[in-house]
Amino acid sequence: MAQPTQRLDPAKFIGALLDAVEEERIEEVRETEQLLKASTPAQIQKAGLGLISLKVGAVRTGLGGKCLADLEPATPGVDQLPPHKLRPGDIVALDAYAASDKTKTVADSSNGSKLATSGVVYRVADSKITIVLDDAVPDEMVEKCRITRLANEITYNRLKDTLRDLEKVIEKNPERHIQVLMSQAPAGFSKPPAKLKLFNPDLNPSQVDAIKLCLSAQDVALIHGPPGTGKTQTVAELIRQLTARGERVLVCGPSNISVDNIVERLAKLKLQMLRLGHPARVLPSVLAHSLDVRVRTCDEGQLVTDIIKEMDTKLASVTKTRNRQERRAIYQDVRELRKEMRVREKKVVQNLINGAKVVLTTLNGAGSNKLRGQAFDTVIIDECAQALEPECWIALLKGKKAVLAGDHLQLPPTVKSKRTNHPLHRTLFERAHKLLGPSAVRLLTVQYRMNQLIMAYPSTALYDGKLEAHASVRDHVLPDLPHVESTEDTQHVAVLYDTAGADMHESAGDTSTSVLNADSKCNEGEADLVAAYVRRLCAAGLAADEIAVITPYNAQVGLLKDRLHSEFPALEIGSVDGMQGREKEAVVLSLVRSNDQREIGFLGDERRLNVAMTRARRHLCVVCDSETVSVSPFCKGLVEYLSEHGELRYPGYE
Prior knowledge:
Its EC number is 3.6.4.12. The chain is an alpha/beta fold. The chain contains 20 helices and 21 strands. α7 (231-244) crosses α8 (256-268), α11 (302-318) packs antiparallel against α12 and α16 (524-539) crosses α17 (554-564).
């Protein structure tokens, strides 16, 4: 048995989490109010928290009869949205937008938001963003509109309700996994199967060992999956093993992408499952298992589908008429059809959920009314180290056993409070990892992504040197790809551009956004250097979609897109946060910070750099000012490692 290293007082612990959640809610509401009162729509867009000059494109009916509206750039000749931070699940205000609004604050330009309607981001693409509305798009907003991200009070209320439910459960007779995670009991394990019949025979010994641990767990087990070690593949095999022995499984992740990754993996295994919520990925293999599609394609749902088609036909006719009276009449017809559809759809949805042996959703989605009263044998939380602990309990209260999979040495969830020892700064995965100790945790040790030169530093600095590169990737380099030439750039696995002393100082980006308290940093010199380097990689034959340009700062993302996007539309340029769980053949990393005060902000968080550099498969290029960034021990170690084992270059002296 895995004995807890220390006992906690559940009542005090949950009370502290409740206070922390309320503190986060207040801070988010405060930020939103400040945003609306003091910022123009253009400033909000610059900060990535909204989009302006949009128009309504296609409109259709979604689950529950809700309106799905595609918002596209309204400016002639513009077919791409600017850089932004909007993600599926974000709550946004949709409002009319006029050119005269540019110099007004959001509160003034929306007339106190009286005309605004709220929606939820459904899907994000480069050229459009789709939002879910309870009703049709108001007339005033069809031809020109804007959206602004709002505080998500619904999520905070759900977190607090969950913690109160947890309090009540603990007072009674909680399931064993709840007692274990609250340090009231040790984790128990039965004898693991001596020989396991695998559905996937290609799993390595550390993956098989992790699966055996989880199958023998009586309450809680952890899978620690460093970058590239096949954690999702391991979780997929575990799900198949659990269902094969008759268990009903709830699989959750903190984001839509994290859930979709598992759906995609399970789809290849032909496993029957049901995906609740809004898939972020538009792959047919993912969408085919979504509740929305299943409702429309199952036999029971045929009548629902017919009603939806009629609604969509009417909604499509709205964009063809400018007569407001005709529009209102159409909307009234749609409302009547929606009422009928909701009644019929509710029964179909419940039957599908009741019959599903594997249900997948986000942690927040696990609190949906659709899952009320549903019980599961095992709850699996993937990317658990990216989730706030209260989010995890939404799912955990629905099961008898728990499997937590993640890596607390990669990016944690975003917490607005900077208070020291804030309860939300520590995730459930990190807490359970320390609480239960090695006997309840299995580390995946073989990675299938990185050349060993790229892997070696994070392995030594963060994972006690336990990672090993699989033979298939150990020595792979860019020129091994048939379409890539060997050049002075591509022949190297790791390149460090040290800009110290090169007068490439950072700047605060667009100071017009300073009122938002969302100032970002940028570095013109680094952006020029990165752009030139990317051009050389592409000239050597590397495809733009095989490269990722990563930087910690949104302002630098904007600079780099200005320099490279029109030339290389398929090139992915983004923040560290947006790349977790992803990989590319080559990664070019711009660290931005260069100042005489040697201030590095959140670059001091080693987890951020761990994610950034471990996205690379065959080639990593880091651009930084070694004097500034070396104030961080992890950054200093990285600079020293790349200087010794990689190709060290200085701008202008190559």
